[in-house]
Every structure is written in C-alpha cells, then in structure tokens.
Amino acid sequence: MNSATLVASLIFAAVLVVLIAVVISMMMRGWRRRGERQAALIGTLPTRPDMVGSATVGPTRGLYVGSTLAPNWNDRVAVGDLGYRSKAVMTRYRQGIMLQRSGASPIWIPQESIKDIRTERALVGKVGPREGILAIRWRLPSGTEIDTGFRGDDRAEYASWLAVGDAR
To answer: Residues in domain PH (predicted)?
Structure first.
C-alpha cells in the first residue's frame, strides 16, 4: 500500500468515526427530548401497597419490552427507566400486577387502573410471533393511558393472564 492510499484510508476512517459519533449523539439527544416532552404526561408511577396477599396468577418469566402511550403501539415511553427492555417476572395479585425487572425499578399496576389485558403481535418496535406479546393497557395517576408489553418465555401461560383479565 502506498502512502497516498494509506492517508486516504485514514482520512476516510476518521470521517466515518466522526459521522457515527454525530449520529449516536443525535439519537441520544432525541431520546432525552422525548423524555422531557413526556414527563408531564407520565407523572409519578403508582407505588406498591404494603400488603399484596397471595398471587392469583403465579410468576411468569420473560422480557419487559417497554411501555407506549396508548393507543400508539410504537410511541415508546422514554421517561425514567420505562423505555428500557429488561428481563422480568410478572405476577398478578388481587390488588394489581407487579413487574419485577432486572436492572430497573419494579412497576406496580393497580387493579383499578387496568383497562385491558390482551395479546399483540407488535409493541414498542418489538415484533414477535403471532400474538407473542402480552399487552396491559392501564391508566396512570396523571390520567394518561399506556400499554405495557411483556413477552413471556412460555406463551402457554398467557391463557391464565387473559382469563383473569376477562374476569375483571
């Protein structure tokens, strides 16, 4: 390789690195601005009550895929850590639903806030197999409705979640 080709290759590589850094910076800025715009809509999340009793639907292991502003399945919530995917365990109690997430704060969904429990093919950009995502539509204390998505490791467990949702 001659010196002119080497210099041109190094310049191209440097320009490419700068371009990638600019794109990543713009994506991070967009995520922060989305969070700022949504902060008033989301408000504070409900806190878990001191006593929840025994589980009505046992722990279901899977992946928390995120939350979206209802009814837009692709309008991801960016406030706090609600927008980050993580492994999770979801358990249903008479008072509500608890989502224990790895590396993130737990989410408590009070029973009176739950509007609908259904299966979806896609939520927050996560597309699964047919009816692969369990979506819970619920109302926040601020009055905003969101959909929270959970993709279980065993889709056969969805039947018990849907039966409890219908029995509300």
So the answer is: 42-163
